[in-house]
Structures are given as C-alpha cells and as structure tokens.
Amino acid sequence: MKRWLPLLGLPLVLATTLAAGDSSVTAEEGQKAFVTVARVLQSPRCMNCHPAGDAPLQTDRSRPHTMNIRRASVAAGLSCQACHRERNSEAIGVSGGPPGAPSWGLPPEETPMVFQGRSLPALCAQLKDPEQNGHRSLDDLLEHVGHDPLVLWGWQPGGNRSRPPVSHDAFVGAFRAWVRSGGACPP
Hints:
Layout: E1 4-5, E2 10-11, H1 12-19, H2 27-41, H3 44-47, E3 57-58, E4 63-64, H4 71-75, H5 120-128, H6 138-147, H7 149-153, H8 168-180
Antiparallel strand pairs: 1-2, 3-4
Helix pairs in contact: 2-8, 6-8
C-alpha cells in the first residue's frame, strides 16, 4: 500500500526518492505534481506579475495596476523598482504601500511567461519551451523557483497579502517531481 505525501498527491516513496536525487519519476507522477505547480503559478502571488496582457495585476482580485503601469513603462525608463523597493513598505513603517523584494519586475516582453488563463497543458508546454521561458532548462527553472528572492517573497508577502495555496517546500517538491519526470504535461 502506498502512503501519500499531503497536498501533492505523490506517493511518500516518491518524496524519499526525490530527496535522494533519483530521477525515476513516472510521467503520471509528474503530471500529478504539475497540478500542484500550476495551482501556485496561477495564484495571485505569481499570476499578478505573469498576466495575459501587458499590465501587471494587483491584490487577490487581480485588478489592473492602479498606477496604469505597463511593460511599455519599463521600456520608457520607469522601472518597477521606482516604487517596489528591496523590501515591503511595511518594513519601513509605511502601511499599505507597495510590496517589495529584490529585482521586482515583470518578465521581459520577449518571454512574458503568461500564467493567467492558461490551461494546464498550455502552461506546462510554455514552461518547457526555451523560446518562451528565457532559454532556461527545467533544472534552471527549478533553481529559480527554489531560490530566487522575488519568488521566495510570495511565501512571506507581508501586510494582508495572501500566500500561495501550498507551502514553498511542497511547491518545490512538486516542481522537482515534475522536472524529474522530464516535464510530463497533463493531457
């Protein structure tokens, strides 16, 4: 009888295997893991900076940015860091001000990595496509979601901001399982 890893729907044996660095993850296990990955990527903490359009979104309702910011704003010289500093405004005593983390910004126009409104197969295919993901390998993407300070901010967003639907450890575990399956996409 298999025991299951909570939240991921992965066998406990798989969690142990992944911790040991073994790459024997079946396509079915990778597809299940990707469902968890997608739940996080399509939550407001990620999706708001990976919108379908050229304007970042705000709040858990994913409303258009109040300052009418667009990708063209960055091209015109208005960096996201003009308002979004290295840390949240609450950290310097400004309640309700802009959130902040190192390197705050939208993905580049050439590779916007849209998470909003994508089906699971389309989101999966986009993540795997180097032409759409900034020429990153699956292992590069795993490193990004595991260690990038802006990604990590999502799990400690401060203020009254919500967190992604699973812990960062569970997300990275699911992402690792998906990578070790060769990036198996749901049908």
